[in-house]
Amino acid sequence: MGEEAAKIFTLSEVSEHNHAHDCWIVINAKVYNVTKFLEDHPGGDEVLLSSTGKDATDDFEDVGHSESAREMMEQYYVGEIDPTTIPKKTKYTPPKQPHYNQDKTSEFIIKILQFLVPLAILGLAVGIRIYTKSG
C-alpha cells in the first residue's frame, strides 16, 4: 500500500473475479487479488474460491490465521470495498412455536391421578379380600 488513494470497488465488481485464473476476496473491507496465492494456500484453493463474491471476513477470522499470514496479505492488496455494496447481515430469529403451558400439564397429571389412585385402592382392597379369604 503506497501513499496513493486506494481504489474503491463494489461487491459486484469484486464478484466478477471468482475463478482460479482471477480470484479476488474481501476481508476487513479490503480487496485482495489472491490468484497467485491459490496454489500455495495451506487450506487449498477451494477455500479461497468459496470465499469470492462475499465479505469473507468471518471465514478468515474463524480459522485463526497467524500474524505472518496477515502480513503476507498486504502483497495481494488491490483496494477497498464500498461498504454500502455489502449486504447487511440478517439476525437469525427462531420460528414461532406454540406457547408451552405448564399449567395444562399439571391439570393432565391430576386427571390421571384421579383415575389411577381410586383404581389402585380398589385393586389393593380386592387383593386383601382374596388374601384373607384363602387363609
Would you give an account of this structure?
This protein has helices at residues 11-15, 45-49, 57-63, 67-73, 102-134, and strands at 8-9, 18-19, 22-27, 30-33, 77-81. The protein is of the alpha+beta class. The protein is built from five helices and five strands. The radius of gyration is 34 Å and the shape is rod-shaped. The chain has a five-stranded mixed beta sheet with strand order 1-5-4-3-2.
Feature tags:
135 residues; alpha+beta; 5 helices; 5-stranded mixed β-sheet; rod-shaped
Write the SSE topology:
Layout: E1 8-9, H1 11-15, E2 18-19, E3 22-27, E4 30-33, H2 45-49, H3 57-63, H4 67-73, E5 77-81, H5 102-134
Largest sheet: 5 strands, mixed
Termini, distance in Å? 104 Å
Unreliable segments of 5+ consecutive residues: none
What is the gyration radius calculated from CA atoms? 34 Å
Report the total helices.
Answer: 5
* Strands, total number: 5
Outline type: rod-shaped
Helix/strand/pairing class, anyone?
A: alpha+beta
Beta content comes to: 5-15%
**What is the N-to-C order of secondary-structure elements (H for helix, E for strand)?**
EHEEEHHHEH
- Strands of the widest sheet, in order across it, are 1-5-4-3-2
Q: Helical proportion?
A: 40-55%
Residue-averaged pLDDT: 85
Task: Give a summary of the structure in a few sentences.
The protein has 135 residues and is of the alpha+beta class.
